[in-house]
Amino acid sequence: MKLGACLLGLLALFGVGKCTYSPEPDQQLTLPPGWVSLGRVDPEEDLSLTFALRQQNLERLPKLVQAVSDPGSPRYGKYLSLEEVAELVRPSPLTLHTVQKWLLAAGARNCQSVITQDFLTCRMSVRQAELLLSGSEFHRYVGGPAETHVVRSPRPYRLPKALASHVDFVGGLHRFPPTSSLRQRPEPQAAETVGLHLGVTPSIIRKRYNLTAQDVGSGTTNNSQACAQFLEQYFHDSDLAEFMQLFGGDFAHQASVAHVVGQQGRGRAGIEASLDVEYLMSAGANISTWVYSNPGRHESQEPFLQWLLLLSNESALPPVHTASYGDDEDSLSSAYIQRVNTEFMKAAARGLTLLFASGDSGAGCWSTSGRHQFRPSFPASSPYVTTVGGTSFQNPFRITNEIVDYISGGGFSNVFPRAPYQEEAVAKFLSSSPKLPPSSYFNASGRAYPDVAALSDGYWVVSNRVPIPWVSGTSASTPVFGGILSLINEHRILNGRPPLGFLNPRLYQQHGAGLFDVTRGCHESCLNEEVQGQGFCSGPGWDPVTGWGTPNFPALLKTLIDP
Q: For the chain, percent helix, then strand, then coil, each to nearest 5?
């Protein structure tokens, strides 16, 4: 009877009290370090909010992804078009009608959808938004290294119960842009200088991973690759040109980015933005490169969410995307995490390879009720992305075997169960690792990551026309691995094969063939007596520090070129 009363008429859509619900009751609302409030936003100021509409047929998506990503499947490589994905997941006519009616009645305007129709972005005044989303209260904040301004609500919002089966969450209220965890480490001390290198450059990467001068894009295919940036950071063409002049002399490469999606600011270049572009374009050399540049166009938009909308609104996209974005799993609402994971499934069904950095905090650490636990990162923990960890040279000045970079993010999700494709590899690690942390620190049945790794320590980057040494983080390893997969896609396309698509089922089936196994070193974690700062340790085969290992290009190409 109560629910019936809530559903009566359009008035129900503006109901309060018992006729409302909270879509994101578990979203963390504490202000991230380094951000301060500048006070309430003027009620007449404009906002841009994104409504994630409930999708259909989600139970069919995992099976579809498995079918197109498993080399043993007759459907392997037969990816869906964006239009076919839209046909599958498009919200019901009732959902579309109900939400549009609610928004129009509230005075929302300029509502823009995407091809899949499962997101709606609308403009409205702060006054209208606070009436529409009961409990919300919009403040302006400033923070981050670039003194970024954002508009967010420090208080939870509620929606009419009549919308519970139609809206997953509303974007633009709570999540703050992440800050870069890249670090510039002090230069190691060398005992001697004969035959040494002075940090990681494209030629060092190409030597270590056995790329020859001929291992570049052919220039004859429509192959492309992309990196996505969510910080208030930009790359400069002049930095890329100087970087290639300094470090790109021994391989063919493209002189500029082919396509920028989003807004390229005119401010100072950021080290992270420069690093992404320079190493994607030197590992995946001579391949057309796109950059998604901080696509959050309004202070109230979430840049990462805006990137997901762009993926759902463009039929022809690069096959490989790399991103260094990450948040603590526990800081995000369940509704948000599950919906973002669905967006990754949509991408996998279309044959997109999404590579995410595993993070730069090792196993992570947090304390709940006085008890320490490791702290997984998302999207690194999503079962539908390929997560890249980090390594160092055993001798930082020589091209040697690789060991664990102690910052390399890895561990076990507290949200997603272990992915079926990794069942055997993870069970083997858990049963054979000689020094596992106490079981209370991690969820042994969760999705385990990373899947692969690459060098993450001691990079040279050119930013604002200045060469900067010893830059470190999995933000470096991710574009390197992405560029190498783009080279493999180039060979596949020339052979009439489809791009690799979602790599994980194949990667685990082939037991890491074509990768250098990293078996030495541990990553960092909680600084307490029980674990003394040590998380997981690497070992033979897959491990939650470096995954299956780092790329050996000729062997990996041989492994992945057919079928």
A: 30, 25, 45
